């Protein structure tokens, strides 16, 4: 980390200590645009804003690395779980770095500190009688010889009949599921139907913690800025009555349970993962308890998408309340709705949508991505990413509105006044404009204080719109050619405009950090400018006085052309084998292949072919019925055909034999 943020003990004298977290991204999923806006980007904007306001802000996040999904992925890729975590942690870190997400510390949950803190909370809950022991019916795959936790099993949702529900939650209706409730369950590794067996587990006694939880929630929701969806989801959980919740799992990859009777188990990832906020902070500073055991002096902001709400508003607070160790609990729970892609959902396997590692390959700057995602931020309702709309917003709002105003203001100074800000003689019309701009600044601050990130962005665009109208009406390029009075007027309009441009650079910093820096360099703005303008309820002051020398002015944004957008839309629109664009491709041997290759799909199909091959071999080894084997062999051949197409090869069988590498 590039800075160490320590707790400010002068809290009572107005220096706020703000602790910001964004939901820990699951390590082996490459985040898509919806994940980025829902968690890390929203939190980044708020953390940057808090620093601008002079608050003492600590922003932590990291990869959530334990659990079934990691074991699954490791098996698929032929790596150990630790190797998978190391590989994908680096992928996440580089994506967020490209999006300029300015964490104070980006850590991970597979650390010694995680084990210490999670086990300490566990023992405190145990000593205070908040844990229960019970025997659980679980699905066990006899072929794989193990219990099937969460993501190792899929079947039909008992609530909404969605056919691909996981063993812990249905992605369609969002309801939590006990794996044995799934209809037609299948093991995800070998596709066999599992059997029900019993296993002893530990539970967090949520009913026993319901009274302190309700008491705390009433206070936190009453005084903090909880989004409407966070309140509603939490209330619906409480309305249904809390039930004991299992905190252990029959897995190898996880934080070990320290109890001697359960030494073969690990903590369930949803007991364990939120403790990651604490352990990640502990890996950042040995003063971590001053942040996490200090509710009197610390305000905690949790950022997430709505599907994570119950774990942050009910399950995790109950763990901390039951531990009775004066933990800092969430004051402001900020949840977004979902971001969709065009008119569908993001899907890595179908090649639909933009994932974090692909954004930088589009040639569109990181700041433009940030702007558009924040402009669309699903506050209050779902929204959808659209390429055509991104082009419109870039070309109309960034290029023609914001960029045009800032560029013209700077150009007038360099062209008409030799790079020197002219003297300003304010008329009633100028004062009216300054009042309107001042009002938008106050709006921006009051909205941002309430974490209305999307609405605050509109205040910035309103100011540049006012500035453009002001320039159009006053026509300084004409007045500069007139007499003394006209020249004086051109000077005032230019001076006022360039000062508004300077204010915009400050307001833009949380949203578009690189553009903000570029504007400051072009205007040669003093470093003190930020502190002044965002103090109190907002203070629009003249930061570039008469005689101030500016730097070299150049355009801030580029037009997104229709053909460029059309290409991107095709590229990220998903490719089914049957409708692939057929382009000649060349193999390493130089032969031309006629089918369109899709390397991403090929990677997935390679894993599928390997898995299906193993299944066929296992069935043959068990001397299964010929008809059963034949069905699985047909599936294997079909997968191999799809793989050949995805690799751009001819799927027809060839006479040459030999293993494909």
UniProtKB/TrEMBL annotation:
GO terms for biological process: methionyl-tRNA aminoacylation. InterPro entries: aa-tRNA-synth_I_CS, Anticodon_Met, Met-tRNA_ligase_1, Met-tRNA_synth, Methionyl/Leucyl_tRNA_Synth, MetRS_core, MetRS_Zn, Rossmann-like_a/b/a_fold. GO terms for molecular function: ATP binding; methionine-tRNA ligase activity. Keywords: Aminoacyl-tRNA synthetase, ATP-binding, Cytoplasm, Ligase, Nucleotide-binding, Protein biosynthesis. Residues 601-657 form the WHEP-TRS domain. SUPFAM superfamilies: Anticodon-binding domain of a subclass of class I aminoacyl-tRNA synthetases (SSF47323), Methionyl-tRNA synthetase (MetRS), Zn-domain (SSF57770), Nucleotidylyl transferase (SSF52374), S15/NS1 RNA-binding domain (SSF47060). It catalyses: tRNA(Met) + L-methionine + ATP = L-methionyl-tRNA(Met) + AMP + diphosphate. The keyword Nucleotide-binding applies. It comes from the Eukaryota. Its EC number is 6.1.1.10. It is found in: Cytoplasm. One of its GO terms (cellular component) is aminoacyl-tRNA synthetase multienzyme complex. Its main location: cytoplasm. The keyword Nucleotide-binding applies. It is an enzyme of class 6 (ligase). Belongs to the class-I aminoacyl-tRNA synthetase family. This is Methionine--tRNA ligase, cytoplasmic. It comes from Esox lucius (Northern pike). The gene is MARS1.
């Amino acid at each position: 980390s590039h800075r160490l943020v320590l707790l400010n003990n002068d809290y009572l004298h107005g220096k706020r200590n703000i602790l910001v977290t964004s939901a820990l991204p699951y390590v082996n999923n490459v985040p898509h645009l919806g994940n980025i806006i829902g968690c890390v980007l929203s939190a980044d904007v708020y953390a940057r804003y808090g620093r601008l306001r002079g608050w003492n802000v600590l922003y932590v996040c990291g990869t959530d690395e334990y659990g079934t999904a990691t074991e699954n992925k490791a098996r698929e890729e032929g790596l150990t779980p630790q190797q998978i975590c190391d590989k994908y942690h680096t992928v996440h870190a580089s994506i967020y770095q490209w999006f300029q997400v300015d964490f104070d510390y980006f850590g991970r949950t597979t650390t010694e500190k995680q084990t210490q803190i999670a086990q300490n909370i566990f023992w405190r809950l145990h000593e205070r009688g908040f844990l229960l022991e019970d025997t659980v019916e679980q699905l066990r795959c006899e072929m794989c010889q193990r219990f099937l936790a969460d993501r190792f099993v899929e079947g039909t949702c008992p609530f909404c009949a969605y056919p691909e529900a996981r063993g812990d939650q249905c992605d369609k209706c969002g309801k939590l599921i006990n794996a044995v409730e799934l209809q037609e369950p299948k093991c995800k590794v070998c596709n066999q139907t599992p059997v029900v067996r019993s296993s002893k587990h530990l539970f967090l006694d949520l009913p026993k913690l319901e009274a302190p939880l309700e008491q705390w929630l009433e206070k936190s929701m009453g005084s903090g800025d909880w989004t409407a969806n966070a309140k509603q989801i939490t209330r619906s959980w409480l309305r249904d009555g809390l039930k004991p919740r299992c905190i252990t799992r029959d897995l190898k990859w996880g934080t070990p349970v320290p109890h001697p009777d359960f030494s073969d188990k690990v903590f369930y990832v949803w007991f364990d993962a939120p403790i990651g906020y604490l352990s990640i902070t502990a890996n950042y500073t040995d003063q971590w308890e001053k942040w996490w055991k200090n509710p009197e002096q610390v305000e905690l902001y949790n950022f997430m998408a709505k599907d994570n709400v119950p774990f942050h508003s009910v399950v995790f607070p109950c763990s901390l309340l039951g531990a009775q160790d004066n933990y800092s609990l969430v004051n402001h729970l900020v949840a977004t709705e979902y971001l969709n892609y065009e008119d569908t959902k993001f899907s890595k396997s179908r090649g639909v949508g933009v994932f974090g590692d692909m954004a930088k390959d589009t040639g569109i700057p990181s700041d433009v991505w940030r702007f558009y995602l924040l402009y669309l931020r699903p506050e209050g309702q779902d929204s959808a990413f659209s390429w055509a709309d991104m082009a419109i917003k870039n070309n109309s709002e960034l290029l023609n509105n914001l960029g045009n105003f800032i560029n013209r203001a700077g150009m007038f100074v360099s062209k008409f006044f030799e790079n020197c800000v002219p003297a300003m003689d304010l008329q009633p019309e100028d004062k009216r404009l300054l009042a309107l701009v001042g009002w938008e600044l106050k709006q921006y601050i009051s909205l941002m204080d309430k974490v209305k990130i999307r609405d605050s962005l509109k205040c910035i665009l309103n100011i540049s719109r006012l500035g453009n109208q002001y320039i159009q009406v006053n026509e300084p390029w004409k007045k500069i050619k007139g007499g003394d009075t006209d020249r004086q007027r051109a000077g005032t309009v230019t001076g006022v405009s360039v000062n508004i441009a300077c204010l915009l650079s400050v307001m833009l910093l949380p949203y578009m950090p690189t553009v903000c820096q570029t504007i400051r360099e072009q205007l040669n703005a003093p470093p003190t400018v930020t502190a002044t303008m965002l103090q109190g309820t907002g203070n629009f002051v003249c930061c570039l006085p008469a005689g101030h020398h500016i730097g070299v002015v150049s355009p801030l944004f580029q037009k997104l052309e229709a053909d460029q957008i059309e290409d991107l839309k095709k590229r990220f629109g998903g490719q089914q084998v049957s409708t692939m664009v057929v382009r000649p491709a060349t193999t390493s041997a130089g032969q031309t292949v006629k089918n369109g290759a899709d390397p991403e799909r090929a990677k997935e199909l390679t894993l599928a072919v390997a898995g299906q091959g193993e299944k066929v071999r296992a069935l043959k080894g068990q001397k299964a019925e010929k008809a059963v084997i034949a069905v699985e062999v047909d599936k294997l051949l079909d997968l191999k055909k799809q793989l050949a197409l995805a690799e751009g090869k001819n799927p027809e069988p060839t006479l040459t034999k030999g293993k494909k590498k």
